[in-house]
Amino acid sequence: MATDHLLGSGEFLSKRLAEKGLRFTSQRKHVYEVLISQRDHPTAEEVFMRTKQSKPEISMATVYNSLDALVKCKVVRQVNVDRGAAMYCSNMNAHAHFCCDDCGKVFDVNLKDSPRVPEVDVPSDFEVRSIDIALHGRCSDKCEECVQN
Amino acid sequence: MATDHLLGSGEFLSKRLAEKGLRFTSQRKHVYEVLISQRDHPTAEEVFMRTKQSKPEISMATVYNSLDALVKCKVVRQVNVDRGAAMYCSNMNAHAHFCCDDCGKVFDVNLKDSPRVPEVDVPSDFEVRSIDIALHGRCSDKCEECVQN
DNA sequence: TCGCTTATTTAGAATTATTCCAAGTATTGA
DNA sequence: TCAATACTTGGAATAATTCTAAATAAGCGA
Hints:
The structure is a homodimer. Chain A has helices at residues 9-19, 26-37, 44-54, 60-72, 144-147; strands at 77-79, 87-89, 95-100, 106-110, 127-138. The N and C termini of chain A lie far apart (46 Å). By secondary structure, chain A is α+β, with helices and mostly antiparallel strands. In chain A, helix 2 packs across helix 3 and helix 3 crosses helix 4. The first copy, chain A, has two domains: 4-79, Winged helix-like DNA-binding domain superfamily/Winged helix DNA-binding domain (Arc Repressor Mutant, subunit A), CATH 1.10.10; 93-140, 2-Layer Sandwich (Dna Ligase, domain 1). Chain A has a three-stranded mixed sheet, with no helix packed on it. Chain B binds a DNA duplex through residues 18, 21-28, 43-45, 57-62, 64-65, 69, 83-86.
């Protein structure tokens, strides 16, 4: 954990997958590299298209499988903001998502403190493993897609 | 607002819809009553089935339209926790959702304070209108569906 | 109250998103 | 190196949501 940053992305990923009993495969590595190389919020479909550039034989089913594996071993987050397709996010720092209801874009926003479980009234036998915070609203005045609204 | 609780659910809903330029229709009223009469987290499909009991002619397209109208005028919340269908929640008190990753059930959890925007670093020209907080983890030891996992 | 304008409803088709399947392939541990 | 089994593949199947065009009904003003 404290030394993860010393590993190359391959070793890092391999280790994280192994911790969950998942195998390190070429497909998962390519999907992971796609996600860390462009830190936006692509859908599975977009990940599929980007991954095909370096791994043309990959299938959609494998993209879903890989994304699930990466989420399970916590190197990627799944983001569900609306009724549409799920999005994936490789920024694992504590952060929330701002989702513009006018243009649909999703932005990472830093949390000033990390989210604290005690603010919430959870039954004592529930185990909280993660917290997702999504803000909704409208993004910048300068947003092209928002202006015409 | 402060006097909304003095209105019957019909008048209340009618007023809220009108504030957003939306019409008060029999279908929207039935969908709304379905949601407030059972405070769980049904999907559009489940809302459709329940609403048909009091309004058999209603169509799925109208259920989606009604749910969107109710969300727009803020008498109902849309809850997106996973890749599956969106869920709808008529509890409008400040609360978060706890989603059990083992059995899939969603629970309302009270917030000790209402969520505060200032905890988050949002660009100054962004307008935050609402905040959704979702906790993930595992629910009670006594949960039937969880035990076999 | 009547009529007009326009939002809403409807059924069903179309589209989009995700999951399933069975056969072949690759990874891991012994 | 070998066996066991997890993973990948393409395509079919399913699930979730949106679209469409014609019929209907709200709400406003006279």
